[in-house]
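**User:** My hope is that you can spare some time for a protein that puzzles me. I have put the entry right below:
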Amino acid sequence: MTADPFQAADRLMPIDEAMAILAARIRPVDGLETLALPAALGRVLAQPLLARMSVPPHDNSAVDGYAVRTADIKGGKVLPIGGRVAAGHPLGRAIRAGEAIRIFTGAPMPEGADAVAMQEDCTVEGESVRLPPDLAPGDNRRKAGEDIEAGRQALPAGRRLKPADLALAASVGHDRLAVRRALRVAVFSTGDEIREAGRPLDPGCIYDANRHALMAQLADLGLGCRVTDLGILPDRLDAIQNALAQAAADHDLLVTSGGVSLGEEDHVKAAVQALGRLHFWRLAIKPGRPVALGQVGATPFIGLPGNPVAAMVTFALIARPLLLLLSGCPDITPLRYRAKAAFAFSKKPGRREFQRIRLAEEGGDLVAHRFAADGSGILSSMVASNALLDMAEGDTQIREGDWVSVLPFAEVMR
């Protein structure tokens, strides 16, 4: 993280402005590792990947049929079948004038053949075949290198690897890929009222849902993050400060929930300031206004809200892009879709709202259903939802039937 990236005033910062600052200032961590293709899924490519060979490596047939020289069949002809070519079994010679070669999909084209007649358009007559009259050079054949040529860039550095990327890498001869090393992330919760699930619950206390949600979101992100669970820290400045200092020494990112608001027992903010810098913004969003970003020494720190829904939503909207940037992936903007609102809703201007919704296809349209219980502590609404309604700062009202912008969980929960 470069110095002084966040000069936050007392105003509420729009989320788009915060994202622009992240994209401009966050630098990827150093280091790479070389992984076999299956292990590289979801990781970020560290170097451009060049094709070691052309794909396909030779001209080949796109169909089952008969390879010919089109000059031999103008007007349609019956030609003797002079050989047979299957995938992996070349003919071993050039095609002769006046013959047809039985060929199958993917088989290498015999030298001199310039088209393939589909078997559906041909009639076999003993040892010969009647060919269609309208075959043109290039019909039903694939040229060598038409997918990618040897020496060309197959994949750019910074690409987050998907199954199709691994398939392409294999097709051009790579069995291992150089990827950005996995991030080391420390996660903890704070609060004297927080207890570990499965243990007796004292009066006035609650079980820790946030820490488990954040660790699960880190795993679901697919970047291979190596997560250290620091557990639940008490509301004591010394305990929080000591834990942060120790974790910062051997981690790339520190993530917490709670303790960054303005309450007397919110000590995380003071601990971060004592150990480094707190570039703190209050985002103009709902849920999740109290979000802190800073650094402990040189290690980035992000403090998410204490309410469970707000913690999960702000992880998806803020922490996920931060993690992608630290991993060397510049593509942090999720796709949004349009859906028809099955509800009416109003809000005050000046704040971006992300309402939990469930998308369903109805009558050929994508329809958004909103949950009436929209509090930041209603965790069950996250379970029942599959998307967020994205309502801009200047918008104040949605009428039933309006087309609205939606952000599917599949875009931000991975």
